[in-house]
Amino acid sequence: MAGEASARLSAPAYFISVLLLTLAGFGAAMLARPAFGHAVLQWAGLEPVPRAVPGSFYAVRVAPLFRDHCIGCHGETRQKAGLRLDSFAEVMLGSRHGAVVRPGDARHSELFMRVSLPPSDDRAMPPSGKTPLTDDEATVIRLWIADGASPTVPAGAVKGAPKLVTPVTIPELDLARAARQRAPLAAAVEQVQRRLPGVIDYESRDSADLEVDASLMGPRFGDAELAMLAPLAAHIARADFSGTAITDASASALAAMTGLQRLRLANIRISDTTIRALSSLKKLHSLGVSGTKVTDAGLASLRQKGVAIYADTDVH
Amino acid sequence: MSIETASEKTVLVWDLPTRLFHWCVVALVFVSWLSADQGWMTIHLASGLTLLALLLFRLAWGIFGSTTARFSNFLHPPRRVLGYLKGLKDGDRLLYAGHNPAGGLMVMAMILVLLAQALTGLFANDGLHFNGPLALLIPSETSDSITSLHRLIFDAILLLLWCHVVAVGFYLLVKRDNLVLPMLTGRKPYSHLPQGVNLAFTRLIIALLLFFLSAGIAAWIMIEGASLP
Predict the structure, then answer these.
(1) Which end of chain B is flanked by fewer CB atoms within 10 Å, N or C?
(2) pTM as predicted
């Protein structure tokens, strides 16, 4: 009895042993199930969560297929079979039954096997009733896995990939909205159109923004004509005054065109004075100043703002 | 049989149905886990329904069974459970013929969690082509939610199993009280029993009748499920 009693473990020793055994068991489970191991390490912040690089084959070609065909059942809200396909990391963690992607081995990857089965097969994915992947789409998945299931390989680097078909959606024209926006301007636009035929019009059928092209009038369009545009200045998005007779005297009139995005001032008698006035235009992203007295120094501040400058060798 | 005195006189404390229930549950929990993990869903269904039948039986046996199997014998108020645990820490040797208050709580928790697992399994699906026998009675979204719960309850089962094994190990290695052997043989050393204990054993035929009744309920669920479109 005394000998047996001395063989007893103390409670602290027992619980420390239990703790160590539990940790060892947990470690063994992580080794036996790599996906479980990765999930635990990623959850604990001990392993970086792999992410697909924008522009990679995965991001451009593979992820959209999962989004369109799979994440209804394998996404954030539902995880059938414990599988999520809504991020690269989740795809690589696999399902409750293990990895679904074996990098470099598409034929033995559960994911490719399932999407390439005929729809009549019970194991085919997406299941019956859902739109199956096309042959090209299945090929994209096969090539991605065969190429190493990488999150970084660029979209164009996977050889043999079927051509990417990008659906083009043409938005409906909202003419009623455009008419409402044009209403306050209509009278002024008509007046300018009468006085300066062919110089001003709306940018497009469904827009209230205006486009000015005075270049056709050439020298007949000067500072006085530009002043006629004053009531509409804030609505002018594009303007071309190339070859006209406007001068630095119109600098303030141009600066009042606060909605200007593209402006052409080629072959006219303007200098850095006008350019300085343009520096207040916040939307301006393109400026043409070929054949003017504008200098590099004058353009510096616009260049700094990211405005694309189109000049020629005449720029000093 | 005690570790201290192998030749000591022993007394029957656990009846056969209680012991069979215990070890069958051990086997069925393992089979259920393995079959779900491997995608052997027909086996999973069979083990789940058998587990359900056993749990229903155990609920009935907790009312009509032998003394140590009865809930009234091993369910105690929380204060008494805490008192028992405190006594354990202080080295008191409190004797119980059946489950001690902490063990009784564990048994009840295990039965309830396993029952929840078996019942949620009836309405769950494997996300592919397998549905629990009653899953088609409810919308698929509800079935998916119940499936998530089914998975969560399994984690609770693992936790309870871990606690159970750690507790049994504690009694074996620290308190030198082997709880496993009596659950196999049904017998405890006389010295491990409180004085004047009087145990009554319900007849086996009652256990059989209760089990057939429980199995009948599980079978009815299966048949009803099979008749669903």
Answers:
(1) C
(2) 0.62
